[in-house]
Each structure stands twice: as C-alpha cells, then as structure tokens.
Design the sequence.
C-alpha cells in the first residue's frame, strides 16, 4: 500500500495539474504549487475521498504545505480509525 | 389604540425564506410599499409596535422607529395585534371595539383586538406549553379567554405569492398614492406611451434622453433621485425606489425595485428588496431578490419550465412545494453574490450570504445559506469572517453601517441554517471528488 505521503502527493498532482515528481513536502499549496482558493476546496474534497475521512473545513483550509497535509491526514486517520501506511 | 405587528410561528415564517431569515415578514415588499406599511395605512394606527424572533430583535431595532419585542407594549392601551401575512386591502377589522380574536380556517390568529380593560384578564390566563415567544404566548392566552370569530381576510402563504400578486398590487398602490405628473426631469428626446396620468416622476429623479416610459398597460412610479440611463425601456406597472439607477434596462411589466439598486439587463415581474446590484445583462424573471445582493454579469434565472408545468420550490432542501404557478423564478437571500454567467433553475431557492460560482449549467434547486457553490455543488461553507468583511464594505459604499448587532444576527442565522448546509457540503464533496 502506498504511504500517506505518496497518496497526498498523487492527489495534489492530479487536482492541481502539477508534476508529481516535483512535489516536495515543504511546498506550499498556494505559493509553490499555484493552488487557487477554488482548488483548495477541491483538494479537501479529494483528500476526504482518497482516505475515507471527514475534515473540518477551517482546519483543512488552514494547512499550507504538503508536509502539513500529510501530518494532518495521519492525525485524522488515527482519530477516525482509518488504517494507513505512514 | 396601539397596533402590534407579529409574524406567525417559525414554521410559517420559514415559508418566506430566504428573505425572512433576516427580517420580519412585514418588511417584504409587494407593490410600491412593504406589507407592514400597507397594514398600518389600512388600520390607520398612529402608534405601532412589533414582535420579531429574538435573534433578529437587536438588529431590527436599529432599522425601525417601532418598539421591538417590548413586553410593555402588550398593555396600557387598547391593542390590535395583526398577523403580518394578512392582505391589507381585504383587512376590514375596526381598530377599536369589543375584544375578540379573529381566526382563519386553519385556526391561525389573524388579529386579536384586546380592549384595555381585558388586557389583565388575558395576561393572567394560562398558556399552553412550547410557546416560543412572548407575543405567541399572549396570543395563545387571548385565544383561550376572549371570544373568537372567523376572519376571512386572505393571507400570503408563501413568498412567491408576493411576486405573483405584484403587478396588481402596483396598480392599486399607484392609485392609492394619488400622484401623477413629472416633478423631476425627463430629458428629450424620449417617448411616453399610454396616459401621462399613469406616470409619476418624483422630484430629483432624472430620466435621460432615449428612454421609453410605456404606461399603456399599467402605471409607472419613479421615486425621488432615481436616475434612468439612455436606452432603458420601462413598462408599467412598475415602481422604482429612491436613488436607484437603471442602466439601459429592459424593465418589463410588474417590477418593484427597492431603494438604492443598480439594475441593468432584462427584468420582468420581479421584486428587488433594495441596495442590490444587477448591473449587467442577464435575465431576472418572477424573482424575489434580497438586499446587498450582487448578480454578476449574465446571471440569469429560468422562470418557466419547458413543459409549462407548475414550478416547485425546495424551501427546506428536502421536499418540493408546488407553487401552483407556471412562472416562478429565483428567491435570493441577502448578501448573496453570483459570478459571471451564473444560471439559476426554475424556482431556485438561493440562501443568504452565499458565494456562487457559475458551473455552465443551471444550478441545484436549493442552495443553503452561507453556501459556497462551485462546479455545481456545495463543497464548503462561506467563511463568516470573510462574508462579514465583504458585507461591511458593500454597505459602506452605500453609506450604511454594518454593526455588531448585524453580526450577531447573522451568527444566529448561520447556526440555524447549519444542518441543511452540512448535508449539502457532505454530498458536494463526495460528488466533487468522484468527478
């Protein structure tokens, strides 16, 4: 099974239309990957679908980096009883 | 004698949403004035007080000279409590007389006339349980201890009825106002069709050249300080409120446009409450639009189905309500903004404080308040903080102030509308991710 980091990067690449290989953990969704506010909402929706979790909207939209998203999703998966590879 | 305006219980008030989320029903418009103004004029009351839902009392008190939710007004004088849904034209109850409670066929209180000597008896009576507000309790007690009579005065049952009755009400209100003639400026060349006795242009209003005022089928009332730009065509019956600007508008029959609006494009048989912008092209028909709404360029609503069947409206997001009419457009709540090219379905319910991005296709029939609409779904709520900043800016541009009381009222509305919105968000995110 792919790790959370790999899955987060794959979703990010697909939604934002950026090169998967070029995505780094420290990349900011807006500044480095060009996410508009509209795409931020799409990312939240796709992360929820990918991991089978529910995200608090304000918390989710306050995550700025890819690494931050990985940490946040790992935390949510633990809280919501979803098994993932870390 | 003191008149007291009251709305029906919450389940009745809900039929006038999304506009009624942020105002009592009597502040809604039909014809040239609000329902409350018509009732006050009909009763001839000099002193008027009112009761509104507690969450909006503080904000509403800032906008009215009436005493709001003041328990002291339920005593100390002869009282006439009037349900704001009543159609004033047909309300022929004498303001003073013996105490009685007028009920409609469903047992709803349409009015309660309480002579001052009976007030103590009413207040001392026992009310039933689960009565949510002081005036509701007072009415329940009055119903229990005073004689009841059947009241046949008709009432408005749903918000779209105001739109459907607007053309006839405009004609009646124009006649009641008793004004005609040009007291403002009508620049030439222009064209006036129909009798000039059916046109009134108030002082300060300016009608530019190349404007057609067509009063052949109904009167046109252009209120003070209105500006009508060239190539506007206004068909009567029509009312244009103070300080509104018409921008080359194709203004078809039956429109009420409240104060301080900017209106372009094509508008037909619609009510715009006030302070809203529909600056650009796009069709608005059989619609009721709230305050501080901005409709982006080419925003268009359908008001007629292709099969000419009755239009239904999803008032609560769950069950459709058959309007019994083949023509009903959008119901759009206060502070909602649409992007360019937004398309609303026939009989669309669009909540307050929404942010709507066009999807290229007609949007869903029910959009909850504070919904962020994107790609035809609701994937998130509008941030209250951002919405309030925008509201403060929009109101400031028209010399109106956004207050902390407004914020508290809208906080309450956010909570009240949360369950329906949360369902829409969960569904919206699933749909968005699976595309």
Sequence:
């Amino acid at each position: 099974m792919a790790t959370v980091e790999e899955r987060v990067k794959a979703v990010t690449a697909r939604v934002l239309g950026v090169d998967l290989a070029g995505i780094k953990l420290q990349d900011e969704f807006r500044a480095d990957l060009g996410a508009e506010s509209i795409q931020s909402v799409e990312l939240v929706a796709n992360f929820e679908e990918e991991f089978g979790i529910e995200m608090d909207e304000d918390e989710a939209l306050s995550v700025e980096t890819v690494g931050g998203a990985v940490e946040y999703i790992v935390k949510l998966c633990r809280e919501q009883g979803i098994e993932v590879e870390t | 004698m003191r008149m007291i305006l009251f709305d029906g219980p919450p389940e009745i008030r809900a039929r006038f949403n999304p506009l009624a989320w942020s105002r009592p029903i009597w502040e809604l418009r039909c014809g040239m004035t609000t329902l409350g103004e018509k009732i006050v004029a009909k009763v001839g009351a000099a002193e008027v007080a009112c009761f509104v839902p507690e969450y909006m009392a503080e904000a509403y008190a800032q906008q009215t000279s009436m005493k709001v939710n003041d328990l002291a007004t339920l005593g100390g004088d002869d009282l006439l409590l009037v349900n704001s849904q009543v159609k004033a034209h047909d309300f022929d109850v004498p303001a003073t007389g013996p105490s009685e409670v007028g009920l409609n066929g469903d047992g709803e209180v349409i009015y309660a006339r309480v002579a001052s000597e009976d007030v103590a008896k009413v207040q001392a009576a026992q009310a039933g349980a689960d009565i949510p507000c002081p005036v509701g309790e007072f009415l329940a007690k009055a119903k229990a201890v005073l004689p009841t009579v059947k009241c046949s005065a008709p009432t408005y049952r749903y918000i779209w009825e105001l739109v459907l009755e607007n053309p006839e009400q405009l004609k009646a209100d124009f006649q009641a106002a008793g004004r005609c003639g040009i007291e403002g400026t009508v620049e030439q060349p222009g064209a006036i069709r129909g009798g000039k006795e059916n046109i009134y242009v108030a002082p300060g209003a300016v009608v530019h050249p190349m404007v057609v005022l067509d009063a052949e089928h109904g009167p046109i009332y252009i209120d003070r300080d209105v500006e009508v730009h060239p190539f506007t065509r206004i068909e009567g019956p029509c009312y244009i409120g103070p300080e509104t600007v018409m921008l080359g508008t194709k203004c078809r029959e039956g429109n009420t446009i409240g104060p301080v609006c900017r209106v372009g494009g094509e508008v037909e048989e619609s009510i715009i409450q006030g302070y809203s912008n529909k600056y650009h092209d796009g069709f608005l028909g059989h619609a009721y639009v709230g305050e501080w709404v901005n409709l982006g360029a080419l925003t268009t609503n359908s008001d007629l189905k292709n099969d000419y069947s009755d239009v239904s409206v999803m008032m609560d997001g769950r069950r459709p309500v058959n309007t019994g009419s083949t023509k009903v457009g959008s119901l759009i709540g206060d502070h909602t903004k649409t992007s360019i090219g937004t398309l609303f379905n026939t009989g669309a319910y669009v909540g307050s404080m929404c942010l709507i991005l066009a999807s290229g296709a007609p949007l869903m029939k029910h959009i909850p308040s504070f919904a962020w609409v994107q790609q035809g779904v609701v994937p998130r709520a509008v941030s209250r903080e951002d919405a309030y900043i925008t509201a403060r800016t929009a109101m400031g541009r028209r010399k109106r102030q956004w207050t902390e009381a407004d914020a508290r009222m809208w906080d309450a509305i956010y909570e009240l509308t949360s369950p329906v919105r949360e369902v829409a968000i969960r569904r919206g995110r699933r749909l968005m991710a699976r595309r």
